[in-house]
Specification:
The complex is a heterodimer of chains A (364) and B (290). Chain A is an alpha+beta fold and 364 residues long. Chain A is 23% helix and 36% strand. Chain A has eight helices and 20 strands. Chain A has helices spanning 45-53, 95-105, 110-123, 139-151, 169-186, 197-203, 221-226, 231-236, and strands spanning 5-16, 19-30, 34-38, 60-65, 68-69, 80-83, 157-161, 189-194, 206-211, 214-219, 241-250, 254-259, 262-267, 278-283, 289-292, 305-315, 319-325, 330-336, 349-353, 359-362. A six-stranded mixed β-sheet of chain A has the order 6-7-8-3-9-10, sandwiched between helices. Chain A has a five-stranded antiparallel β-sheet with strand order 13-12-11-14-20. A five-stranded antiparallel β-sheet of chain A has the order 15-19-16-17-18, with no helix packed on it. In chain A, helix 2 (95-105) packs across helix 3, helix 2 runs parallel beside helix 4 (139-151) and helix 3 packs across helix 4. The longest helix of chain A is centred in the middle third of the chain and has 18 residues, at 169-186. Chain A is globular and about 80 Å long. Chain A starts with a strand and ends with a strand. Chain B has helices at 6-36, 53-59, 62-96, 101-107, 114-125, 130-137, 152-176, 180-188, 193-204, 206-222, 225-230, 238-249, 252-279; strands at residues 40-42, 45-47. With 290 residues, chain B is mainly alpha-helical. In chain B, a hairpin with a 2-residue loop joins strand 1 (40-42) and strand 2. Chain B has a single domain, classed as Orthogonal Bundle (MetI-like fold). In chain B, 72% of the residues lie in helices and 2% in strands. A two-stranded antiparallel ribbon of chain B has the order 1-2. Chain B is globular and about 70 Å long. The A-B interface holds A 53-55, 74-76, 80-82, 84-86, 88-94, 96-97, 100-102, 104-106, 113-114, 117, 130-131, 133, 149-150, 153 and B 179, 181-182, 184-192, 195, 199-200, 203-204, 206, 284-289. Chain A: One of its GO terms (molecular function) is ATP binding. Chain A: It comes from Ancylobacter koreensis. Chain A: This is ABC transporter ATP-binding protein. Chain A: Keywords: ATP-binding, Nucleotide-binding, Transport.
């Protein structure tokens, strides 16, 4: 049985004047999940979130939350709360009064407000910060207050608009872990907007990859990484090698693609291809096997292999990333640093090969 | 010798010109005037002394209270009208328009001189003016309304007209600091549009509101040209009285004493206004929990 959807979007289209920024979006968000809207800037992810929050009206389409249509409700009447990119904490109020803001509007009695606010400040580990002014907080602390201010209202869905963009890298990783913990403790559904694929893969139950106002692909981070559905997806999530070529043969088992001087075999994955059609193969850098070619050794007929010269070596601690210049493309190869510390050197001739199932056949 | 860092030197250099200007043209004259308010005047000559007679004379005169009340009334009405009228316009300019066209159009009224505008209002409000003739032709009145011109009403209308661009300028720049995301955050947390105004926008542009109010209040309450030209007999203000002491009566000490009494009254209004905003919970920096 599938988890019921808490938010549903039906044919959501948004145009600003002549510019259409969202095209006919259908999307269901499951109760309790962390769903990430991922994409480059200008892909419409922020607009989509603002439509769910009620800050933008749809041009066409409907939004439902918990089964009821909220398309025409103003933001203050929707059971969602938002964490803003630059937090938007009220500078004329202290931390306690910022967190209490929503509850006081609901006319909660004083005692209950105090209990709820203290509980929230405890959840975000800012127990003794109630009387601090906003300008006295660090970026990470302000982020926590913004979370507490939204979550204290017990929203059906918490919307997070690039909440970590203003933090430096070290705090960002710490806050990601914190967000996961808070998600687990509250069980609230999170919709998270980001352009950062690392944040998306670390945090999400599911990723919605967006491009030019359309949904490119939806899936778990693992699915998206292992089975990208398009060139855009393969490039956006993680490092990848793209090899282009024409289909030379195809049957129910496998497809063969001319890649440079050789041929590549890819298992059939249901994608219909025609003979001669130009397609792309996506191969992750860590899925390659690379071996030195000894002097004088005859190069065998290339199946799932490319020969080239090591162009660049980047040492990254636990792993090493090589650039290998082949006749058609410069490809990346990544390996875990071997225990004896041996590495390929620049200028060495190598052969890069891969297992057929390591490549993904892409037609768009 | 004390060392002054480069940054401090630059700071001093930036402040010095305006400080020097204020010192020569405001602080020193104000001190001299204050000293003068304890002197005596006899037959157009100043006699150094230390007497409270001038203050006592003003405070024991019912006319002084009446005129001061008029001045404060003009100032308060003008300030309230200016803030109330320019706030919605400022709100519209900051949150609903992209460019500054409307803003500049309103500021254009500054280009005409102060006196021209006073005389323009004489034409509009006079017995044969725009308002009276229109009302008479519509048959709403038989006689021209004399109270339109030469009344506190005329003074306040004109002063508000003159002050409006100042108020707008101050409120627009204050509202520009209240970024749209604060408004959105408040809406998101369940605030209605009115609650956004009272709980977020007004406290956040507190300085602008107080600034616009006090600026228009001080200038209109102290003004003596507009009441003299438009206020009529009942519209006389302390400003006119003070100006007369310096210009015709030649009693500088008495004029100075009244000027400082008026200043004290302004301070009371300022403190009262700030207290009122605090009581209405519109002031920032307040904690609502213990």
């Amino acid at each position: 049985m599938s988890t019921p959807n808490i938010v549903e979007l039906y044919g959501v289209t948004k145009a600003f004047g002549a510019l259409t920024v969202l095209h006919d979006i259908d999307l269901g968000i499951r109760e309790g999940e962390i769903l990430t809207l991922l994409g480059p800037s200008g892909c419409g992810k922020t607009t989509l979130m603002r439509i769910i929050a009620g800050f933008e009206a749809t041009t066409h389409g409907r939004v439902t939350i918990k089964g009821s249509d909220v398309s025409y409700l103003p933001p203050d009447k929707r059971p969602v709360n938002m964490v803003f990119q630059r937090y938007a904490l009220f500078p004329h109020l202290d931390v306690f009064d910022n967190v209490a803001f929503g509850l006081r509007l609901k006319k909660w009695p004083k005692e209950r407000v105090r209990e709820a606010v203290q509980h929230m400040l405890h959840l975000v580990q800012l127990d003794d910060y109630g009387s601090r002014w906003i300008h006295e907080l660090s970026g990470g602390q302000a982020q926590r207050v913004a979370l507490a201010r939204a979550l204290v209202n017990a929203p059906s869905v918490l919307l997070l608009d690039e909440p970590l963009a203003a933090l430096d890298l070290k705090i960002r990783h710490h806050m990601l872990a914190e967000l996961k913990r808070i998600h687990q403790e509250t069980g609230t559904t999170f919709i998270y907007v980001t352009h950062d694929q690392d944040e998306a893969t670390i945090l999400s139950d599911r990723i919605v990859l967006m491009n030019k106002g359309c949904i490119e692909q939806i899936g778990t981070p693992e699915e998206m990484y292992a089975h990208p559905g398009s060139l855009f997806c393969a490039r956006f999530l993680g490092e990848t090698n793209i090899l282009s070529g024409a289909v030379s043969a195809t049957d129910s088992e496998a497809t063969f693609v001319n890649v440079g001087p050789g041929t590549a075999k890819v298992p059939a994955n249901g994608t219909a291809v025609l003979l001669g059609q130009s397609v792309s193969l996506a191969i992750r850098p860590e899925a390659l096997q690379v071996a030195r070619i000894g002097a004088g050794e005859a190069a065998p007929e290339g199946v799932n292999a490319l020969e080239g010269v090591v162009d660049d070596v980047v040492f990254m601690g636990s792993r090493v990333v090589y650039s290998i210049r082949t006749p058609i493309e410069t490809i990346k190869y990544q390996e875990t640093r071997s225990l004896d510390g041996s590495m390929l050197a620049r200028g060495e001739r190598v052969r890069a090969s891969w297992r057929p199932e390591a490549a993904v056949l892409l037609t768009r | 010798m004390m060392k002054i860092s480069r940054q401090e030197r630059m700071g001093l250099g930036l402040v010095a010109p305006s400080f020097f200007f204020l010192l020569v043209f405001f602080i020193i004259p104000a001190i001299l005037l204050f000293v003068c308010s304890f002197w005596m005047a006899q037959a157009f000559r100043l006699i150094p002394a230390f007497t409270f007679d001038n203050y006592a004379r003003a405070l024991s005169n019912t006319g002084f209270y009446f005129l001061t009340w008029n001045a404060l009334k003009n100032g308060l009405c003008t300030a309230v009208l200016t803030v109330v009228l320019s706030f919605p316009a400022a709100y519209f300019i900051v949150y609903r328009t992209r460019g500054n066209l409307l803003f500049y159009l309103i500021l254009v009224s500054w280009f005409s001189s102060y006196l021209v505008r006073i005389y323009a209002w004489r034409v509009i409000l006079g017995s044969n003016g725009l308002i009276n003739t229109t009302l008479m032709q519509l048959g709403l009145i038989d006689q021209p309304l004399e109270m339109l011109l030469f009344s506190p009403f005329a003074t306040i209308v004109t002063l508000t007209h003159i002050m409006l661009p100042f108020g707008l300028l101050l409120l627009v720049s204050a509202l520009r600091d209240v970024k749209k995301e604060y408004v959105e955050a408040a809406r998101d947390l369940g605030a209605s549009q009115t609650e956004v105004l009272t709980r977020v926008i007004l406290p956040m542009c507190y300085k602008g509101v107080v600034g616009a109010f006090m600026f228009t209040f001080v200038i209109s309450a102290g003004d003596f040209v507009t009441p003299q030209l438009l206020g009529g007999r009942d519209g006389m203000t302390t400003g006119i009285l003070i100006a007369n002491q310096f210009r015709t009566a030649g009693n500088w000490p008495f004029g100075a004493a009244m000027a400082f009494l008026l200043l004290a009254a302004f301070l009371v209004v300022y403190l009262g206004f700030v207290r009122l905003l605090d009581l209405l919970r519109l002031a920032p920096g307040r904690r609502f929990h213990d």
